[in-house]
Design brief:
Largest sheet of chain A: 12 strands, mixed
Structural class of chain A: alpha/beta
Mean pLDDT of chain A: 91
Strand content of chain A: 25-35%
Strand order of the largest sheet of chain B: 4-3-2-1-13-14
Low-confidence stretches of chain B: none
Order of helices and strands of chain B: EHEHEHEEEEEHHEEEEHEEEHEHEHHH
Radius of gyration of chain B: 23 Å
Structural class of chain B: alpha/beta
Helix content of chain A: 25-40%
Distance between the termini of chain B: 63 Å
Number of domains of chain B: 3
Oligomer: heterodimer
CATH superfamily of the largest domain in chain B: Metallo-dependent phosphatases
Distance between the termini of chain A: 75 Å
Mean pLDDT of chain B: 89
Shape of chain B: globular
């Protein structure tokens, strides 16, 4: 080992708490990846805490500082100061590399092992998997290494992904980078419920700018651009079950809904809104249901007796194939963005419920017919996931299609990409099913605890590291990675620069 | 106040059976008679006046006579190509009739820096301004819409009508979910009336930014499914629109002039012999006198062959009982014992499309246009071209040459060598 590379030496500690004495002039950072070399193997260590070490008693150090500060001896210094005072880094061994094999370390590095910075060469085992989803570059502390981190999307998406972070840490940037990298891959259909209209790129760069967008990206919005689809859902495509776990109904209201559905089938909502009387349904119950549908769907009758929708998103005439079109697209491996920014929460979740229920139903059938193998994985991006996966929500409204997917989707090749600021609100059983967590910065201790408790790897010492993650910095903890990988996520605009190219087919007009 | 009539999807020449041919032509004549009776100022036919670009001469002759009558009364007929009577080299019957001054093709376009600028055609009597965009096969007109200069169309003042022949994604009926379509956002906004064609079901719908998007549906039937829809109660006809500077009234003119009956039979859990007997017994009890009967047989037989259920026997029975025509749809019928049909669909085009979709993955090609959805679309359309039958008196050489030209055009190839 060349001396220049050495940044420290193991001087003590125990499993998961190795003490490394930093070499003077070197700067070991929180989160740094370091290497202890062994016979035929490398041990990757990760720094999770830093402290001062000194051979000088505390009182002497305080006295020296006082003398200098108060002007008694500005020239005073310690003899051989680099030997007297130094930094002690606490680190844990995260992986043992033997050739191409990556193993969970089960031994300590040799006592007094020299420690060096990690290099790109040490990480040659990071290869591009099949069905690659790009996450970013390996990061050591705040230093970015030129090593790309990809996940195998088929594995990862079926086993759910959760992205916990507070505002401004780059959640949507990360999801955009991931989605951009799979736009050309037909092995994944992705439904993006976009309450902030930030993925397509209405006001700047977005997924629309991909050269693959024309063939693989479909955008639905109540205010569409030329060439994109208007988000209109026909009322007849809504089943009573789509409200399950999303809108609260009393027993009497549920009975009334059943009565209307049994009598009018797919015209049940129209008849409720129109006030058609049905035996056994009290007028008061009907009125309450009308009010609920007005609040959730925005549907009402105008003065001419025509059914209208406040948001224009629900219709009794148009949008008959919207659900089918979206599900067909997902089944063909396309990526579908549904801009729900102009909808109320419940309407957004309801639209998602309609689509997800349909894809879930179809995939159940494919599985029973033995056809599921040939179908692409379908993943659903849902923002503010506790709205449907929160403990309180599930307790008060019962299960919904999103929680069903979280629990059972894996069997049917359907997964969630759940984005949340408040991961602590999601029950442990559901979090345990979410096998990949891409952890961004989080200053809330309660949230960090929930993240650490549910991570695929032991992150019990990483509380401070998570708190100190800057925008774009992440820790990738997944049952499909050998260790929790520190990642630097590129800025979306920078990432896409290389891939954008203008392509225009010439059309010859006949007419 | 002015008036215009909006027709579409006449599909003249679609039907080969004499009974249906007669009904088809009757529908067309009835519609034009109504237009004369209503004293409309002009007529719009938004695509698929004919079922093919060079239709049967007998059909053409009859249609021309009727259209001349309309023209002679000072009622102009404005048309665009539909997906059926489209011609890539502008040699469709529509072009011939346009050149003869019998109808007016209103598509006027200027290609500018990779974009398409449509020019308005102004009806001299009413000053209504019409802009039209023709269809192409396989929904390829979407490319036109994508490069359309919408701004110049939106800026124009006056009473404006946009004429097109495409399915609008947001307005497709559920059973046409698989049909190629364009999102409504590709249409220019702010027109007073959008005269659509291609969807075989009448509809008059408002969407944000689009006051009236109207499809009249076919006058009679371009496909057996149209007969089925009519038998299920779908009204056939066209729209008459009253307007001055705005649309003031719009009414659907129902021209249904024959009785039809829809019968559905589910053969599930019966063997072919039981099903045949039960179906015939059922049909014997139904009054079919003077009706066009559409029979749909579906379900999975528990045993026997699907062909054991004899269409001929069923048809003969119903005709003997006085039916004027019998259309039998059995594409939804399968048998457990003879799993010959592995793909079930609404009709032949749907089945072919599904077969292509399921098998295209097995074809290893590098050209992207031959893969995936685009490949399926191309294969489906190519099949249509290749299966065209020769016209009466069409020389074999001409027929083959035309097929060859159409196929090359479909494949967007100039010539095939060696």
């Amino acid at each position: 080992m060349e001396e220049l590379e050495i940044v420290g030496q193991v001087v003590g500690g125990k499993t998961a708490e190795l003490l490394i004495r930093e070499k003077s002039g070197k700067k070991i950072e929180l989160g740094d990846l370091l290497i202890a070399e062994e016979e035929g193997a490398l041990l990757i260590l990760q720094v999770y805490d830093l402290a001062y070490g000194s051979q000088v008693p505390q009182s002497t150090r305080e006295l020296l500082a006082g003398l200098k500060l108060e002007g008694y001896g500005t020239e005073l210094t310690f003899l051989e100061p680099e030997l007297r005072n130094y930094v002690i880094a606490k680190a844990k061994a995260v992986a043992r590399i033997e050739g191409k094999d990556v193993k969970v370390p089960k031994t300590l590095p040799r006592f007094f092992s020299y420690i060096r910075y990690i290099t790109e060469k040490d990480l040659e085992f990071f290869t591009k998997p099949p069905n690659p989803v790009y996450v970013g570059k390996v990061r050591s502390g705040s230093k970015k290494l030129d090593v790309d981190v990809y996940l195998n999307g088929v594995d990862v998406f079926t086993h759910h992904v959760v992205i916990p972070a507070t505002t401004g840490r780059g959640k949507s940037n990360l999801v955009k980078v991931m989605l951009w990298s799979i736009l050309d891959q037909p092995n994944f259909g992705v439904l993006i419920l976009d309450p902030h209209d930030e993925y397509y790129g209405r006001h700047g760069k977005g997924l629309k700018d991909s050269p693959y967008a024309k063939d693989s990206l479909i955008y639905y919005s109540s205010t569409p651009f030329p060439g994109t689809n208007t988000l209109i859902v026909n009322l007849r495509s809504i089943l009573p079950s789509h409200f399950q776990g999303i809108v609260e109904f009393t027993d009497a209201q549920l009975d009334a809904i059943r009565s209307y559905y049994n009598r009018f089938e797919d015209e049940w909502i129209e008849n409720i809104v129109r006030g058609t009387e049905v035996d056994g349904v009290a007028p008061r119950t009907l009125e309450v249901l009308q009010r609920k549908f007005y609040n959730v769907l925005g549907v009402y009758l105008d003065d001419d007796g025509n059914l209208q929708c406040r948001s224009k998103v629900f219709s009794d005439t148009a949008g008959q194939t919207t659900t089918k079109d979206i599900v067909n697209a997902l089944e063909k491996g396309k990526k579908v963005i549904v801009d729900t920014s102009r909808l109320l929460d419940q309407a957004e979740l309801l639209i998602g419920s309609i689509i997800v229920s349909e894809i879930f139903y179809r995939y159940q059938i494919y599985k029973s017919e033995g056809k599921l193998e040939d179908k692409p994985v379908v993943s659903i991006v849902i923002e503010e996931a506790p709205r449907v996966l929160g403990t309180d929500v599930l307790a008060s409204l019962g299960e919904n299609i999103y929680s069903t997917v979280a629990r059972e989707g894996r069997k049917f090749k359907i997964g969630l990409i759940a984005i949340t600021q408040l991961i602590s609100l999601i029950p442990r059983q559901i979090l345990a099913n979410m096998n990949t967590k891409i952890i961004l910065g989080n200053e809330m201790a309660v949230e960090r605890k929930a993240i650490i408790d549910s991570a695929a790897q032991d992150l019990s010492e990483d509380d401070r590291t998570i708190a100190s993650l800057d925008r774009g910095e992440a820790i990738l903890s997944s049952s499909f990675t050998k260790f929790a990988v520190p990642v630097q996520i590129p800025l979306f605009e920078d990432y896409i620069k290389a891939t954008i190219k203008a392509e225009k087919d010439k059309t010859i007009f006949v007419g | 106040m002015h008036k215009f009539a909006h027709l579409a999807d006449c599909h003249l020449g679609a039907n080969k059976e004499p009974v249906l041919q007669k009904l088809e032509m009757n529908a067309f004549k009835t519609a034009l008679d109504k237009c004369i009776e209503e004293e409309v100022d002009f007529i719009i036919i938004s695509g698929d006046l004919f079922h093919v670009n060079i239709p049967d001469m007998k059909v053409t002759n009859e249609a021309v006579k009727k259209m001349k009558e309309v023209r002679d009364r000072g009622i102009p007929i404005y048309v665009i190509y539909g997906s059926h009577d489209y011609s890539p080299n502008e040699t469709s019957m529509v072009d011939v009739l346009d050149s003869a001054g019998l109808i007016k093709k209103i598509v006027k376009v200027e290609e500018k820096e990779g974009g398409l600028k449509l020019e308005f055609f102004t009806d001299p009597k009413t000053s209504a301004k019409l802009a039209g965009i023709s269809a192409r096969k396989a929904g390829l007109e979407k490319n036109y819409f994508e490069i359309l200069d919408r701004e110049s169309l939106e800026k124009e003042n006056g009473f404006k009508i946009f004429v097109f022949h495409s399915a609008i994604t947001e307005l497709k009926p559920e059973y046409l979910a698989e049909m190629e379509s364009i999102p409504v956002s590709l249409l220019p906004r702010g027109f007073d009336y959008y005269a659509g064609g291609h969807i075989h079901q009448h509809a008059n719908i408002r969407l944000p930014g689009y006051e009236r998007i109207v499809y009249p549906g076919p006058l009679f039937a371009g496909y057996p499914r149209d007969l089925e829809l009519s038998a299920k109660g779908e009204k056939r006809g066209f729209y008459i629109i009253s307007f001055d500077e705005k649309v003031r009234d719009i009414k659907f003119v129902d021209i249904s002039f024959y009785d039809s009956l829809y019968v559905e039979y589910d053969a599930s859990n019966k063997n072919s012999i039981q099903a045949q007997k039960e179906l015939l017994d059922k049909l014997r009890k139904i009054d079919v006198g003077n009706k066009l009967v559409v029979l749909r047989i579906k379900g999975e037989l528990s045993g026997g062959k699907t062909s054991d259920i004899s269409s001929t026997e069923i048809r003969n029975l119903l005709l003997q009982k006085g039916a004027i025509y019998v259309s039998i749809n059995r594409y939804g019928l399968t048998s457990k014992e003879y799993a010959m049909v592995k793909v079930v669909g609404e009709d032949i085009p749907a089945i072919e499309s599904k077969l292509f979709t399921e098998n295209i993955g097995a074809v290893k090609v590098s050209n992207e246009t031959l893969k995936g959805e685009r490949g399926v679309r191309l294969a489906t359309e190519l099949l249509k071209v290749l299966r065209r039958e020769p016209k009466p008196n069409e020389a074999k050489k001409d027929y083959e040459e035309q097929i060859r030209r159409d196929a090359l055009e479909m494949l967007q190839l100039k010539e095939v060598s060696g």
